[in-house]
């Protein structure tokens, strides 16, 4: 487990811009050293804010978009093109504006797609896609993502791993169908904690006052079943990117004094 590092920005706009700049640098560095990069996107307000900031950043042209693999941490299991689907929102915020290779955009299945309305089959299909993309050096059924981003919900959920639901207890499968999610829609598809932990870097995004309690709980030693965000960490780095409002309930010992 890599211990969480915290960066606290003044407000959510600055956080989104700084995180977008950080992501551009990560992708460019990975492409320079390995020829390609892989990023796992998150849904939600903070994830979409980051993508919009990236779309507006002139430095986005430093990325070779054709050599970037995009995956998703979770998806709301809805029909293709539904405005509530994470992929639909990501396309609007950024993806439609950059020259990605469509074969490298690994959206999670829709509820009117190849698996019909069977979220568990859709999850198994996505797990197969991940396994097929993994190299022998990845030591497992999931690629070693360069960066995996997770929005933190006000209830400490990450991806579609909600407190106490079976998905957060999963230790074998890399992707699961989620049923009875407390946040709509109730049916979702999600990476599990073991799949999340395959990433080199895990970035948790939390901006806004409604994330303050969740951040304080997850960073104060809570268990991952009760607070899924506490169980999300990367192989090399776990980074919490917060704004001042989301950091406002953190114990002083955790709050980095020199953040801007
Ligand atoms: O439903 C979801 O919610 C979380 C957090 O969203 P936010 O709007 O509270 O920031 C998100 O990370 C997840 O991908 C999404 O499906």
What does this 3D model show about the protein?
A six-stranded parallel sheet has the order 1-9-8-5-2-3. Strands 4-7-6 form a three-stranded antiparallel sheet. The chain has helices at residues 12-34, 44-56, 86-93, 119-133, 193-196, 212-218; strands at 4-9, 37-41, 68-72, 74-76, 147-151, 175-178, 188-191, 201-206, 237-243. It is an alpha/beta fold and 260 residues long. Helix content is 27%, strand content 17%. The longest helix is centred in the N-terminal third of the chain and has 23 residues, at 12-34. It has six helices and nine strands; from the N terminus they run βαβαββααβββαβαβ.
Précis, in short:
By secondary structure, the chain is an alpha/beta fold. The chain has helices at 12-34, 44-56, 86-93, 119-133, 193-196, 212-218; strands at residues 4-9, 37-41, 68-72, 74-76, 147-151, 175-178, 188-191, 201-206, 237-243. The strands form 2 sheets. A 6-stranded parallel sheet has the order 1-9-8-5-2-3. The chain has a 3-stranded antiparallel sheet with strand order 4-7-6.
Keywords:
alpha/beta, single chain, 9 strands, 6 helices, six-stranded parallel β-sheet, binds the ligand O=C1O[C@H](COP(=O)(O)O)[C@@H](O)[C@H](O)[C@H]1O, 260 residues
Computed structural class: alpha/beta
Kindly, what is the distance between the CA atoms of the first and last residues, rounded to a whole number of angstroms?
Answer: 27 Å
Strand order of the largest sheet: 1-9-8-5-2-3
Largest sheet: 6 strands, parallel
Average predicted local confidence, pLDDT: 96
Share in β-strands = 15-25%
The distinct ligands, each listed once, are:
the ligand O=C1O[C@H](COP(=O)(O)O)[C@@H](O)[C@H](O)[C@H]1O
Helix fraction? 25-40%
The helix-strand sequence is EHEHEEHHEEEHEHE
| Alpha carbon gyration radius | 17 Å
User: Low-confidence spans: pLDDT under 50, at least 5 residues?
Assistant: none
**Overall spatial form:** globular
Keywords: Hydrolase
EC number: 3.1.1.31
Catalytic activity: 6-phospho-D-glucono-1,5-lactone + H2O = 6-phospho-D-gluconate + H(+)
Domain Glucosamine/galactosamine-6-phosphate isomerase: 11-240
């Amino acid at each position: 487990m890599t211990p969480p590092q915290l960066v606290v920005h003044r407000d959510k706009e600055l956080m989104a811009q700084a995180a977008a700049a950080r992501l551009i640098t990560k992708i460019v560095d990975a492409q320079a050293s390995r020829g390609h990069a892989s990023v796992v996107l998150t849904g939600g307000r903070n994830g979409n804010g980051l993508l919009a900031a990236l779309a507006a950043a002139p430095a986005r042209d430093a990325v070779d978009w054709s050599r970037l693999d995009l995956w998703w941490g979770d998806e709301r299991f809805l029909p293709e093109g539904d405005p509530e689907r994470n992929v639909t929102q990501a396309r609007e915020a950024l993806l439609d504006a950059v020259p990605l290779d469509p074969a490298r955009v690994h959206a999670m299945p829709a509820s009117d797609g190849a698996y019909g309305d069977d979220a568990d089959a859709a999850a198994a299909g996505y797990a197969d896609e991940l396994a097929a993309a993994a190299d022998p050096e990845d030591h497992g059924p999931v690629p070693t993502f360069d960066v995996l981003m997770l929005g933190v919900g006000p209830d400490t959920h990450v991806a579609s791993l909600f407190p106490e639901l079976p998905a957060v207890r999963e230790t074998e499968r890399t992707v699961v169908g989620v049923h009875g999610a407390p946040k709509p829609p109730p049916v979702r598809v999600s990476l599990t904690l073991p799949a999340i932990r395959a990433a080199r870097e895990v970035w948790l995004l939390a901006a806004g006052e409604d994330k303050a309690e969740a951040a304080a709980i997850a960073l104060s030693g809570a268990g991952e079943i009760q607070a899924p965000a506490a169980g999300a960490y990367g192989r090399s780095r776990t980074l919490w990117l917060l704004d001042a409002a989301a950091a406002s309930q953190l114990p002083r010992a955790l709050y980095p004094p020199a953040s801007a």
